Amino acid sequence: MPDLSLLKTLCTTDGISGDETAVRDRILQEIRPYIDDYSITPLGNLIAFKKGASRPKTKLMAEAHMDEVGMTVTHITKEGLLKFEPVGGIDPRVLAGTSVTVAGRYPGVIDVKPIHLIDRSDQCKAVPITELYVDIGAKDEADAERHIALGDSITFSPFFDMQHGTIKSRALDDRAGCFLLIEWLKKPLPYDMIFVFSVQEEIGLRGAKTAAYTVAPQAAIVVETTTAADIAGVSPEKQVCHVGKGPVLSFMDRATIYDREYFRMALQIAENAGIPCQVKQAIAGGNDSGAIHTARGGIRTIAVSLPCRYLHSPVGLISEEDLLHTAALLPLLSEKIAETDPSVLQNI
Question: Which keywords has UniProt assigned to this entry (predicted)?
Answer without folding.
Answer: Aminopeptidase, Hydrolase, Metal-binding, Protease
